[in-house]
Specification:
Elements: H1 7-10, H2 15-24, H3 36-41, H4 48-59, H5 66-73, H6 80-84, H7 91-105, H8 110-122, H9 126-138, H10 145-148, E1 168-172, H11 178-181, H12 184-195, E2 198-200, H13 211-214, H14 219-238, E3 244-246, H15 249-255, H16 258-261, H17 269-278, E4 279-281, H18 282-287, E5 301-304, H19 308-313, H20 319-326, E6 330-331, H21 347-350, H22 352-366, E7 373-376, H23 379-386, E8 393-395, H24 396-402
Parallel strand pairs: 1-2, 1-3, 3-4, 5-6, 5-7, 7-8
Length: 405
């Protein structure tokens, strides 16, 4: 696509990257065929091709309006279009660049600002978030539906974790909302890894991966969180930790991008690249292990929801299903498994109507094979789907741990 950036746009730190991405787009429109919001709304500007054109106009110096902002806000960042695109357009990075420029030019209404700042204040703070969830459980009956559906229905308490005793050591991201919404997920992970001769080294100083800030108009704050995590993990990396494991694919996708996002930071570029190289979704670790040692047994029928951040961002579509089949689980077929469930980080809060439509469509597909349980690999998807009050939704590793002899 022919592109001529304005003089102002050429001064942006990522101007050259934006221009390169824009020029790689041939405007073919294949992306619209798999874009969830385009399928729902049928508006060219609510599909990847239209959003790319909007960003191009902005970077070429055309007027920026609230309509522009709205169309970019409606994007789920599911990256389905990147999987579909024959030209390899790096859409999510262009979207990040475009959103930052638009948000700087178009002040948000007070209500939107308060909502986004509230989310940034609560979600990345595990202690505060867990306290609010616990309080919500106590007063559940008094809450409006919009809040009640965000609370876990049947929250399994965390089982004890094994002691650090093996020569093989990995780090794990504890997460922000996961300890409050699904506290047994990482405990189950540690118990399964322990059976395979792998111990988790605690890194208490590590916190939120930074994605919440980064995708809510605060990119600098998100990158600062990334730097703090790098500092927290670095001593263990120097001592030989073989991986940084994520049990939430959304966090994993962002950590794997640290190297790119901090490549121009002289103090952190090399460390960030190393961290991104070591970052592994849990399924990547288990795929290489002798799973027959686990000897799991389960009669349950499972439907696996593959999060967008796992299949489109990390390119690990089919990996969890392969592990579950190796372990002997019975998986049902899921039509249109490439489509987003509508969770998308905080999207279910900032765009509730679209999010609910996508959730209901996804649940219809997941339930078409009549599973006993739906399993997934991302806490946001898990909470969002389970909030509908239909088939129970859990993290897949909890089902594996529960089936251990």
């Amino acid at each position: 696509m022919q592109t001529t950036l304005s003089e102002h746009a050429r001064q942006l730190p990522r101007a050259e990257e934006a221009e390169s991405i824009l020029r790689s787009c041939v405007h073919c429109g294949f992306c619209n065929a798999t874009c969830p919001t385009y399928q729902l709304l049928g508006d060219e500007l609510d599909g990847p091709r239209g959003r790319i054109y909007l960003i191009k106009q902005v970077l070429e110096g055309n007027e920026v309006t609230q309509k522009t902002q709205q169309h970019l806000d409606r994007c789920l960042s599911c990256r389905n279009c990147e999987t579909t695109c024959p030209s390899g357009v790096d859409y999510h990075n262009l979207l990040d660049i475009g959103r930052a420029v638009v948000d700087a030019a178009v002040p948000r209404p007070l209500g939107q600002r308060l909502l986004r700042e509230g989310l940034r204040g609560v979600v990345p703070n595990p202690g505060l978030f867990k306290g609010l969830v616990n309080s919500g459980q106590v007063f559940r009956a008094l809450l409006p539906d919009s809040l009640r559906v965000k609370l876990p229905r049947n929250m399994a308490p965390a089982k004890p974790r094994p002691t650090t005793r093996h020569a093989r050591q990995v780090l794990i991201l504890e997460g922000c909302v996961q300890p409050g919404l699904s506290p047994n997920t990482n405990a189950a992970t540690s118990r399964v890894l322990d059976r395979l001769g792998i111990s988790i080294t605690p890194a208490r100083e590590a916190g939120c991966c930074g994605a919440v800030d980064y995708h809510l108009d605060a990119q600098s704050a998100g990158l600062d969180r990334a730097r703090r995590n790098i500092d927290a993990w670095w001593p263990s990396i120097e001592n030989g930790a073989e991986a940084i494991v994520q049990t939430a694919s959304g966090c994993g996708a962002f950590i794997k991008d640290y190297g790119h996002l901090l490549e121009n930071d002289p103090a952190y570029a090399d460390k960030a690249k190393k961290v991104s190289d070591l970052a592994k979704d849990l399924v990547e670790v288990l795929s290489d292990e002798p799973l027959e040692k686990l000897a799991v047994h389960s009669e349950q029928r499972l439907a696996f929801h593959c999060p967008c951040t796992l299949q489109h961002a990390q390119k690990l579509g089919g990996a969890v299903e392969a592990v579950l089949l190796r372990l002997g689980f019975n998986l049902t077929a899921v039509p249109d498994s490439h489509l987003c469930c509508g969770s998308a980080g905080t999207y279910s809060i900032t765009q509730p109507e679209l999010s609910r439509q996508l959730r209901d469509n996804k649940l219809n597909a997941l339930e078409s094979g009549h599973p006993d349980v739906i399993v997934t690999a991302n806490i946001g998807c898990q909470s969002h789907l389970d909030g509908a009050g239909r088939t129970p939704v859990r993290h897949w590793i909890e089902l594996v741990e529960a089936a251990l002899p």
